[in-house]
Amino acid sequence: MQLRCLSLHIISLLIISTLVAISSASSICEFSFTQQNKLYTYSLASSSDTFPHGVVSEDGYYKVSSNGTVVWFQLCDGMIFNHDPPICFDCLDCGGPSRCGMGCSALMSNTILGGYPVCTTIGRTQSITANLIDKESPGMGVLVEMWHQGPAMNCSFSVSVICDSKKFQGPKTLIKTGTCDFATQITHPAGCANVLAAKNNGWGWFSTLLIILLCLFGIYLIAGAAYRFFHLGIRGLDIIPNLEFWASLPHRLQNSFSSLVRRFRGPSQNYRSSYSPVDF
User: Fold this and answer.
1) Where in the sequence is the signal peptide annotated (predicted)?
2) For residues 159 and 169, is the Cβ–Cβ distance under 8 A?
């Protein structure tokens, strides 16, 4: 009985840890951007029919190399090696010798003098951030960045996820942008945004102008009424400035409207001229 309870407890812990890992992986690479009344929503780790794990590599990692430098990395999650693990020295910051590569999100191996590969952690899952490649062109794709602060130097790694809704292409080139800074790019449908019409909750120019005019009118009434009440000693409705004008305003507007209607319609059928024809 105790053995069964222990087994159920272990299974529950595994399920919970899996769900937490999935949730954290999906939340790392989710963000939105609003431009010109359009809402661009990106979710790199969301599943699709073609890519069940989104931009996250199903192999557990991506790999790219250039001029003797090799970089293993994973997007929106940590790396997992079921085969072909990194073999290099100084892997303590990324899982240790027995689990090398499984304690970080980006690992760089460089061959030093003597032919020995030495590992350097250049990105951690906790440091992963996602942003637009170009804010002027939100449809271009997403830039995923990660970094690691080591005892000797600070390192970083960035991956441009180029939007292409029809094809996937893994990393082909590795660019060294600094002393311990590297960059690459992939092409993936997950880099494309879900575009929606953004809700415009702000005030338009006409509404803003109307509010300004109403505020000025209110200030005019309050200031005028205060002046007439305290300085002139007027009481009652007469404290309203230009009361006669405001009282006659509806009648004036009605007359103006009627005049415009008559002008556009012309004289009515029942209209008779006050002039009588004269025979000579």
Assistant:
1) 1-25
2) no
CA distance 229 to 242: 14
pLDDT tens for each residue of 230-267: 888 888 888 888 888 888 888 888 888 888 888 877 66
pLDDT confidence of residue 279 = 56
- Kindly state the percentage of the chain with pLDDT values over 70: 82
Could you give the count of Cα atoms lying within 13 Å of 39 in the half-sphere of its Cβ?
Answer: 8
Q: Give residue limits of the domains in the chain.
A: 24-197, 205-264
Q: List, for residues 154-180, the tens digit of each pLDDT value.
A: 999 999 999 999 899 999 999 999 999
State residue 38 phi and psi, 5-degree precision: -125, 135
- CA 200, CA 27: separation in Å to the nearest integer? 26
**Those residues with Cβ within 8 angstroms of residue 184's Cβ, 6 or more apart along the chain or in another chain:** 64, 71, 158, 159, 160, 171, 172, 173, 174, 175
